[in-house]
Design a protein that fits this description.
Helix content: 40-55%
Radius of gyration: 22 Å
Order of helices and strands: HHEHEHEHEEEHHHEHHEHEHEH
Number of domains: 2
Subcellular location: Cell envelope
Family: Belongs to the bacterial solute-binding protein 9 family.
Strand content: 5-15%
CATH topology of the largest domain: Rossmann fold
CATH class of the largest domain: Alpha Beta
Pfam family, one: ZnuA
Number of helices: 13
Number of strands: 10
CATH superfamily of the largest domain: Nitrogenase molybdenum iron protein domain
Distance between the termini: 77 Å
Strand order of the largest sheet: 2-1-3-4
Low-confidence stretches: 13-28
Largest sheet: 4 strands, parallel
GO molecular function, one term: metal ion binding
Shape: globular
Organism: Aerophobetes bacterium
Structural class: alpha/beta
Length: about 325
Amino acid sequence: MLKKGAYLFLILFATMFVVACSRMPKKGSSSQNFVMPSDKLKVLSTTTIIDDLVAKIGKEHIVHTSLITGQLDPHSYELVKGDDDKISNADVLLYNGLGLEHGASLKYHLENAENAYAISDSIQDDTAFIFVDGQVDPHIWMDLSLLAKAAIPVGKILAKHDPLHEKEYMQNAKDLEGKMLALDRQMEVTLGRIPKESCYLVTSHDAFYYFTRRYLAKDNERASGEWKKRCRAPEGLAPDGQMSPKDIGAIVEYALSYGVEVVFTESNVNQDALKKVVKIIKQKGSLADLSEKPLYGDTMGEEGSGAEDYLKMMEYNSKLISEHLCKTHERSLL
């Protein structure tokens, strides 16, 4: 028979083993799994949003992971220990492009790797891109109809490197494209219900221009370019926390001019600037508050957030924005 001490040790060991296993990353998305030998196609994406699309297209035929995980900022990301191993083990390297991944060490690899592909190259119409202060806006994923254009090309890239599963890749890509366009139509309806006098969005940084143009603007505004008046943020395309009193003052004036009562935080951006905006608006005698929950702009949500994958993230954002802006309109009628 086991002695009491040995028995307790076995129970403790078994408990620790179960807990450790429960915390292991999902199969196929583990960085540790990615660098292990495998007969499957290895696909490395820069962001979790791209990785999510890859996972839905490649499914069981690939091993996949992303470089930039959690709530890390993709704009300023620099390679860390272990990233070189991931890059050297990748058969395919997918990135957003349009200057999103502009950290020097990462940018070097993306520009010099023969197996690297920018998903933004899938968008052939140059007029689809938005420019902010002379810079191209890289946040194309905030418009489902735009990112849907990348589904089939990603399927073709996987098929190029793994012809044996071409049929599955292309069918999965087609299915994903259909789901993305269906959600795009659903969001147009959901957000189209917001009265136009309340369709004004203030967020942490300039990640929601594509979202605004697609889902909050009216047709005549898209044609004239006036849709840009419906979105503002104190920080630019890449949040860096370097805001002047002038930047904050401009957002305050914008909010007061258009009756903005809710300022949307973002999951991976510091809230200090937005808190200052809200404080000043209140000092001027108007209603204002931070959103109860954050929007997801550059990253997806953690498990349990309701924004765990790309499609859920977009639906989550649309519902949160719609609920808050509709409430603002209702209060304006009182």
